[in-house]
Amino acid sequence: QVQLVESGGGLVQAGDSLRLSCAASRRALGNRPMGWFRQAPGKEREFVAGIGTRGGSATYADSVKARFTISRDIANNMVSLQMNGLKPEDTAVYYCAARSPRDVFGSSDSDDYDYWGQGTQVTVSS
Q: Is the separation of the CB atoms in 12 and 125 below 8 Å?
């Protein structure tokens, strides 16, 4: 069982930056592709970014490309999402998720992920 805990959310103004972190308990994340998703009120959960094992093959939703960066800190068993140039439409609960260690790449399909964190709220005011 992998437990994921997100942190770093908050209330910011448009144009500001935030860094979200996802920590895992008990099991190493280095051998699992990881993803960040978000869900805004009244909307479906959507893919934000994914990263393959050992930090390779990062992918992004078009809406966040060039503003967000996903990375992993294998030594500290964490995955992060650096969010720059935040916009009000980025307001959502952000979730990190882990795939099976049998997989290599991140995925934009939420059904491909085995474990999820509880989410952290990001609110961007205009």
A: yes
| Separation CA 71–CA 6 (nearest Å) | 14
Q: Answer yes or no: are the C-beta atoms of 92 and 37 closer than 8 Å.
A: no
Closest by CA position to 13, among listed 66, 82, 81, 91: 91
**Residue 7: which of 118, 102, 101 has the closest Cα?**
118
**Digitized pLDDT (tens) for each residue of the chain, 126 residues in all:** 889 999 999 999 999 999 999 998 766 777 889 999 999 999 999 999 999 986 678 999 999 999 999 998 888 889 999 999 999 999 999 999 999 989 989 999 999 999 999 999 999 999
Strand 120-125 relative to strand 10-13: parallel, antiparallel, unpaired? parallel
The answer to whether 106 touches 98, Cβ cutoff 8 Å, is: no
Q: What is the Cα–Cα distance from 126 to 116, expressed in whole angstroms?
A: 30
